[in-house]
């Protein structure tokens, strides 16, 4: 028996399990309808919204999602400074006893 999950997973998600858990926590910790500055979850009685679980869920969703792609194009690379003499073998001096 296979069951489909209750929501579509975005294509940018790289850690599905973390994203699903964070999504469940974020759904459970929404602001109260008549007091949007308070969390509606009974575990967060009298806590300001966003409560710590809601903030953690938001950070977890960000961590489970790959970053936005960088701008396309060619990068300008400057020539490195000359490093003459760094990788030449050193001359060994005879030991004086």
Structural key phrases:
single chain, 97 residues, mainly alpha, elongated
Q: What does this 3D model show about the protein?
A:
The protein is an all-alpha fold. The relative contact order is 0.16. The protein is built from 2 helices and no strands. Helix 1 (16-28) packs antiparallel against helix 2. It has helices at 16-28, 52-63. The model has no long low-confidence stretch (mean pLDDT 82).
Which spans have pLDDT < 50 for at least 5 consecutive residues? none
End-to-end CA span: 83 Å
Helical residue percent? 25-40%
**Biggest beta-sheet profile:** none
Mean pLDDT: 82
Count of DSSP strands: 0
What is the H-and-E element order? Answer: HH
Structural class: mainly alpha
Shape: elongated
Query: What is the strand content?
Result: under 5%
């Amino acid at each position: 028996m296979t069951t489909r999950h209750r929501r579509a997973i975005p294509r940018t998600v790289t850690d599905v399990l973390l994203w699903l858990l964070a999504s469940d926590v974020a759904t459970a910790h929404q602001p109260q309808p008549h007091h949007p500055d308070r969390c509606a979850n009974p575990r967060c009685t009298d806590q300001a919204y966003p409560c710590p679980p809601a903030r953690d869920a938001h950070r977890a969703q960000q961590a489970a999602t790959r970053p936005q792609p960088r701008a396309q194009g060619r990068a300008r690379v400057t020539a490195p400074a000359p490093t003459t003499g760094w990788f030449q073998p050193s001359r060994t001096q005879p030991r004086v006893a």
